[in-house]
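hi! just following up on the protien thing from before. the input was this:
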Amino acid sequence: MSRTKPRVLDVGCGIRKYPGSVGLDNNTRTAADVIADLDQHPYPFRDSSFDELRAIHVIEHVDNVIKTMEEFHRVVRAGGTVRLETPHYTDFSSFCDPTHKSHLNSFSFRYFGDDDAGFGYYTQAKFREKKVYVKLLALWRYLGFEFLINASPRLRRQWEYYLCYIVRGKVMEFEFEVLK
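and the predicted 3d structure came back as:
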């Protein structure tokens, strides 16, 4: 029984496209296979064309996070994976880049899941949260705060509410399963 290689879309691939993926970017000076405006939907791919989508330091640059997540949902098959990485809004890098349009926290994508905070009517696109991991600045990581914050959603929520301006976040990694 031969197993086919998963088809991966690297959105905003830049010059370091994920190995074996189809690269999508809006800049012609990148390693992209397809050049398209990431804010113009639909992307030039059929529905459910990919097994996995990666958007590493991309979602903070788009005009409309919800519409972009809906597009990610459209191009990835049911049960497929969407991987995102973005700065936490308390990190210096979130605000020092003038191309960042959104400043996000570890609960910013709740509208797309079961815990939609009563705002599930914003979108029909649904995802199951498989992983959320918050990386902290080095000092806090060495002191063990990164481990504690990521130990449970409850501890992460307490950190977001009360401590994130002192124990600042750096980068967040998300992994979602596409539900259709």
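The chain has a mean pLDDT of 95.
Residues 8-134+171-179 form a domain with the Rossmann fold fold (CATH 3.40.50.150).
cheers
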